[in-house]
């Protein structure tokens, strides 16, 4: 086990350096000179240009720049945004809770609906419920979520007027945000209506972001359950006269969960990719929208730093899932 | 030597049978057959779209902007699915748009699969250190969420459909590398590879003639699935303004143009998305059918 963990940790280092190198070199490859972009339409004098190039280190050899960037990254210094002049690191972690809140809610939504759907489908294999659920799951899996978001807006915000179209909360509410999670902060603030407002803003983005994970989890749960239901110990449990609910819900599901947990862990990348579209459509002030805006504004340090932080986050989650997998499943640990 | 030859002769004879066997299993799956039909229609529209479309896809009927579909008040048979804010016929744009998505799928899958298979074969056949280096590089690419990486790549290359395709192909490539390498490694253990090597087959013959055909099943399934991913990602990039540029009637770009009218004219938003969904769904249905028909493990049970 220890060897397994150490081995995994060792592969993390070259991948990390590689990810840093990629996000560093991408930005060097972007069209347009960063200093010209910063100067804007008015242009810039040659002396000032040289001065700025020196200040940002663009006049030095590229490998020196990379080394400085790498050592900076390890100390939490990702440079400053061209637009807001604030450190990228601070901006990222100021916006991150919004994305985290949305992703967690989407995941809860997906798991709460996906697990039972998969179990019901597996238990009724080949029957109406199975077909109906799995067809729905396939539709969900094939869904262009940006279109799905627009449809939901048409129906629930346009026709029914139930939910707001954008943002995290109505503008009338203002309160401190110690946790960064709007639903917790609004509840803690004690202002009347703040919590419902936050919740209403959260519903549509959650559904949109959760749709694909929901479909994936339902399909994965079904196939894992089908595999487990064929095992001898399930037949034994049935023969002993246990209730179907207990056999399916406890004996089978517990063992079917292992691949499902992996899928949940590995869909973090999918969630972040989905967050880019979801946040853009619902004007959700998280890192997805921040990245898209920065790409359009050619805010190089932000694109570079954001890309790196997101990739590192995905890597850490995948690593954790791999290790957890060993903890849950002793079969792997022994190897 | 004789054994190897006769085994090969048997395999050659078996080929048409294999295809029939595949079709037998594929046909079992009703969804897959429906998917195949829809895909056939989609491919037909991709080739002959402009000939079938009732109007020119870029022609602006200025007297009939934002006209609703025929079954709603104010709709006419001239524009069956209505018109967009510039008065262009929705149905014609959708039909002509099929070719962009089809093209994206074909090109992306070809680039990603060819590159991925070659790199995967090389990784599978190389010594361990080279293999590790290749796989680490693939891990690095996979660490970035695919859409984000594609978005940044397109920002570097400049927004256009071609660049979107290149970006998506690069992002999808590692999946093929991993898949090919895994199959190659498991095939290399088998006796027929050893006997081919003993018989004096060169490295290229081993790679492409001996081993590759036996690794194709999972790669074909992956190709079907990434065809739909490519269409979805290209549409998403178009929607974000980083894919095909207006006035190209690409479905994702059409959605982006229609966004501000969503509460006034539901049809400009609904139909392009529906076209994407139906196409992607059909391909995924086909992919599921392919997997069931090609996966020997499921077949026996």
UniProtKB/TrEMBL annotation, chain A:
<feature type="transmembrane region" description="Helical">
    <location>
        <begin position="132"/>
        <end position="156"/>
    </location>
</feature>
<dbReference type="InterPro" id="IPR045621">
    <property type="entry name" value="BPD_transp_1_N"/>
</dbReference>
<feature type="transmembrane region" description="Helical">
    <location>
        <begin position="256"/>
        <end position="282"/>
    </location>
</feature>
<dbReference type="GO" id="GO:0005886">
    <property type="term" value="C:plasma membrane"/>
</dbReference>
<feature type="transmembrane region" description="Helical">
    <location>
        <begin position="198"/>
        <end position="218"/>
    </location>
</feature>
<dbReference type="InterPro" id="IPR000515">
    <property type="entry name" value="MetI-like"/>
</dbReference>
<feature type="domain" description="ABC transmembrane type-1">
    <location>
        <begin position="96"/>
        <end position="325"/>
    </location>
</feature>
<protein>
    <submittedName>
        <fullName>Dipeptide transport system permease protein</fullName>
    </submittedName>
</protein>
<feature type="transmembrane region" description="Helical">
    <location>
        <begin position="302"/>
        <end position="328"/>
    </location>
</feature>
<keyword id="KW-0472">Membrane</keyword>
<dbReference type="GO" id="GO:0071916">
    <property type="term" value="F:dipeptide transmembrane transporter activity"/>
</dbReference>
<feature type="transmembrane region" description="Helical">
    <location>
        <begin position="9"/>
        <end position="30"/>
    </location>
</feature>
<keyword id="KW-0813">Transport</keyword>
<comment type="similarity">
    <text>Belongs to the binding-protein-dependent transport system permease family.</text>
</comment>
<keyword id="KW-1133">Transmembrane helix</keyword>
<keyword id="KW-1003">Cell membrane</keyword>
<feature type="transmembrane region" description="Helical">
    <location>
        <begin position="92"/>
        <end position="120"/>
    </location>
</feature>
<keyword id="KW-0812">Transmembrane</keyword>
<dbReference type="Pfam" id="PF19300">
    <property type="entry name" value="BPD_transp_1_N"/>
</dbReference>
<dbReference type="InterPro" id="IPR035906">
    <property type="entry name" value="MetI-like_sf"/>
</dbReference>
<dbReference type="Pfam" id="PF00528">
    <property type="entry name" value="BPD_transp_1"/>
</dbReference>
TrEMBL record, chain B:
<keyword id="KW-0571">Peptide transport</keyword>
<feature type="transmembrane region" description="Helical">
    <location>
        <begin position="261"/>
        <end position="286"/>
    </location>
</feature>
<keyword id="KW-0472">Membrane</keyword>
<dbReference type="GO" id="GO:0005886">
    <property type="term" value="C:plasma membrane"/>
</dbReference>
<dbReference type="InterPro" id="IPR050366">
    <property type="entry name" value="BP-dependent_transpt_permease"/>
</dbReference>
<keyword id="KW-0813">Transport</keyword>
<feature type="transmembrane region" description="Helical">
    <location>
        <begin position="146"/>
        <end position="172"/>
    </location>
</feature>
<feature type="transmembrane region" description="Helical">
    <location>
        <begin position="32"/>
        <end position="53"/>
    </location>
</feature>
<comment type="similarity">
    <text>Belongs to the binding-protein-dependent transport system permease family.</text>
</comment>
<feature type="domain" description="ABC transmembrane type-1">
    <location>
        <begin position="98"/>
        <end position="287"/>
    </location>
</feature>
<dbReference type="Pfam" id="PF12911">
    <property type="entry name" value="OppC_N"/>
</dbReference>
<protein>
    <submittedName>
        <fullName>Dipeptide transport system permease protein</fullName>
    </submittedName>
</protein>
<dbReference type="GO" id="GO:0071916">
    <property type="term" value="F:dipeptide transmembrane transporter activity"/>
</dbReference>
<dbReference type="InterPro" id="IPR035906">
    <property type="entry name" value="MetI-like_sf"/>
</dbReference>
<feature type="transmembrane region" description="Helical">
    <location>
        <begin position="192"/>
        <end position="213"/>
    </location>
</feature>
<keyword id="KW-0812">Transmembrane</keyword>
<feature type="transmembrane region" description="Helical">
    <location>
        <begin position="100"/>
        <end position="126"/>
    </location>
</feature>
<feature type="transmembrane region" description="Helical">
    <location>
        <begin position="219"/>
        <end position="240"/>
    </location>
</feature>
<dbReference type="Pfam" id="PF00528">
    <property type="entry name" value="BPD_transp_1"/>
</dbReference>
<keyword id="KW-0653">Protein transport</keyword>
<dbReference type="InterPro" id="IPR000515">
    <property type="entry name" value="MetI-like"/>
</dbReference>
<dbReference type="InterPro" id="IPR025966">
    <property type="entry name" value="OppC_N"/>
</dbReference>
